[in-house]
């Protein structure tokens, strides 16, 4: 990527669609915007600008005034007429501030809001936009652009988009969920893309210098965990199948396309909610993938209940080098009753042994800072984490209350949070509390931060710390009253562990030296390396 040079948009005199710019916030991957841009280009030859505003974990959070100035100036230089913004609940506050500035300086721009927050809370999104996409956006976006210049009467009935007229919301029917086998390969070129971070605008795609590329082979999730937005998305996106698989041949085509642009590509990460749950698809994938990409390892997220006895073995032969499983809690009763996760302790350990048998790096995702977890529950969780055969890694994530999920509704009813504390206009906690081990974070929402237990859990996956020592430390009352001591021990263990993982990944060329340096700059997190 190079320093930006803003050129006049290449618009044909006969162009029949608006100059359109799509913005993502804290999401340079933003598969939604990338798919929309590729889709309308493939269907109608329409060109769309894409701006990626801020990285997922920016050094300057949430943004600087200079960065906001750069964004506004870029929108002006591009002569934007229609602005599309992909928004998650956690980015609402920043999106509101960005759009307020756009309204102030470019009042003529029409704004379309999309993304998960728009699907779940569409009325709320009219505080920001003129239009709201209430489901998958490919065909609604295409129809909006194609008919934009024919006037409001032509576009106001487009399925999948809500509009306002005379102060009233026009609630159109949701569009049919897309056949993802009709989705074209993603355009990863540098054309019409800009990245705003660290007080500068960089022209080009912010991803193509990476050594790791993310691919989706499915949409939707077959599970309904109580804390997750998939818990409620299917209720809103109910026209057609919610969970859909992309054909293996098209996934392979997607990877070839990515390899064309990612000159340093050394690894693929399948970013599906759950990978490998469809046996027929899995068998075909494991047969074809290594024939096409014998030297391109991959990683994915799995569910223990979806893995058959021989599945891990097949994936290992196909090139799997890193598997992740969302366990959420080390307490079996808590997993079932609170999270609606049905894996038993024995099933989880069985899966771990399968990964270890094939020398596959393995990571658990767990949720911490949960007000429902008593000390007794946490003690039982610790016993389970220490029973899991090492080596393994652990990613710890603070519990976040997303709109309308079962767990959010329960927490409101039980008095742990108020409706104002749900992610959206009043909160951006998903961005602020992702880093679990932060010494000065005393309270989350309305309950105390469990810094002591977070620190103890963080050490369980470190093979160089004997389990007996961790158990002994967990029982010391002085440390519970003074968690800063165990906190510093956990931070030191993380530095050692991440250094070891990073060194191995460097040797295997899974990451570059610049990637390792970026991680080394910030040791405030308690997780391992996701990629």
Largest sheet: 10 strands, mixed
Mean pLDDT: 89
How much of the polypeptide forms β-strand, as a percent range? 15-25%
Give a count of the beta strands, DSSP E runs of length 2 or more: 20
Distance N to C terminus: 22 Å
Low-confidence stretches: 1-13, 522-531
Structural class: alpha/beta
Identify the CATH homologous superfamily of the largest domain. tm_1862 like domain
Number of domains: 2
Task: Please count the helical segments.
Answer: 21
CATH fold annotation of the largest domain? pyruvate-formate lyase- activating enzyme
Shape: globular
Nearest-angstrom radius of gyration? Answer: 23 Å
Q: So what's the oligomer here?
A: single chain
Q: Helix amount, in percent?
A: 25-40%
Element layout with pairings:
Blueprint: E1 2-3, E2 20-25, H1 31-44, E3 49-53, H2 65-77, E4 82-86, H3 92-105, E5 110-114, H4 116-120, H5 122-125, E6 131-133, H6 138-147, H7 152-155, E7 161-165, E8 168-170, E9 193-197, E10 200-203, E11 212-215, E12 218-219, H8 230-236, E13 244-245, H9 248-261, E14 267-270, H10 279-292, E15 298-302, H11 311-318, E16 320-328, H12 332-339, H13 345-357, E17 361-368, H14 375-387, E18 393-398, H15 406-413, H16 429-432, E19 443-444, E20 447-448, H17 451-460, H18 467-474, H19 477-481, H20 484-507, H21 513-520
Parallel strand pairs: 2-3, 2-4, 3-9, 4-5, 5-6, 11-14, 14-15, 15-16, 16-17, 17-18
Antiparallel strand pairs: 1-10, 6-7, 7-8, 9-10, 12-13, 19-20
Helix pairs in contact: 1-6, 10-11, 14-17, 17-18, 17-20
């Amino acid at each position: 990527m190079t320093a930006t040079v803003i050129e006049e948009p290449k618009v044909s005199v006969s162009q029949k669609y608006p100059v359109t710019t799509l913005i993502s916030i804290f999401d340079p991957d933003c598969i939604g915007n990338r798919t929309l841009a590729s889709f309308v280009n493939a269907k109608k030859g329409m060109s769309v600008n894409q701006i990626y505003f801020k990285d997922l974990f920016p050094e300057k959070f949430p943004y600087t005034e200079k960065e906001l100035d750069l964004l506004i100036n870029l929108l002006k230089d591009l002569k934007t007429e229609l602005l599309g913004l992909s928004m998650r609940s956690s980015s609402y506050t920043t999106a509101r501030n960005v759009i307020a500035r756009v309204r102030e300086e470019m009042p003529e721009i029409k704004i379309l809001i999309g993304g998960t927050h728009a699907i779940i809370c569409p009325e709320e999104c009219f505080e920001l936009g003129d239009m709201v996409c209430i489901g998958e956006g490919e065909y609604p976006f295409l129809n909006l652009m194609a008919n934009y210049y024919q006037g409001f009467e032509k576009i106001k009935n487009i399925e999948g988009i809500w509009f306002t007229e005379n102060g009233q919301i026009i609630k159109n029917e949701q569009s049919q969920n897309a056949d993802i086998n009709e989705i074209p390969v993603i355009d990863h070129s540098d054309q019409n893309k800009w990245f705003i971070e660290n007080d500068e605008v960089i022209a080009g795609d912010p991803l193509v210098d990476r050594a790791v590329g993310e691919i989706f082979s499915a949409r939707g999730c077959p599970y309904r965990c109580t804390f997750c937005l998939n818990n409620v998305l299917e209720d809103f996106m109910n026209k057609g199948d919610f969970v859909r698989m992309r054909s293996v041949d098209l996934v392979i085509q997607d990877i070839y396309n990515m390899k064309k642009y990612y000159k340093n590509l050394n690894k693929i990460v399948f970013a599906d909610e759950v990978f490998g749950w469809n046996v027929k698809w899995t068998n075909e994938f494991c047969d074809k993938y290594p024939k096409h990409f014998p030297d391109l390892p991959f990683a994915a997220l799995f569910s223990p209940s979806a893995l058959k006895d021989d599945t891990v073995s097949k994936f290992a032969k196909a090139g799997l080098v890193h598997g992740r499983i969302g366990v959420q809690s080390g307490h079996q009763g808590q997993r079932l009753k609170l999270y609606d996760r049905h894996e038993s302790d024995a099933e989880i350990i069985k899966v771990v042994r399968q990964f270890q048998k094939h020398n596959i790096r393995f990571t658990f995702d767990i949720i911490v800072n949960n007000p429902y977890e008593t000390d007794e529950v946490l003690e039982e969780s610790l016993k389970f984490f220490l029973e899991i055969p090492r080596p393994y890694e652990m990613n710890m994530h603070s519990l976040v209350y997303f709109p309308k999920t079962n767990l959010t509704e329960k927490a409101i009813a039980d008095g742990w949070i108020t409706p104002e504390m749900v992610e959206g206009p009043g909160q951006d906690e998903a961005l602020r509390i992702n880093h679990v081990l932060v010494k000065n974070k005393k309270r989350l929402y309305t309950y105390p931060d469990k810094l002591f237990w977070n620190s103890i859990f963080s050490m369980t996956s470190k093979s160089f710390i004997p389990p007996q020592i961790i158990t002994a430390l967990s029982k010391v009352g002085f440390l519970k009253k003074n968690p800063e001591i165990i906190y510093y021990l956990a931070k030191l263990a993380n530095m050692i562990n991440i250094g070891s993982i990073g060194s191995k990944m460097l040797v295997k060329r899974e990451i570059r030296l610049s990637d390792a340096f970026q991680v080394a700059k910030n040791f405030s997190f308690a997780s391992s390396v996701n990629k």
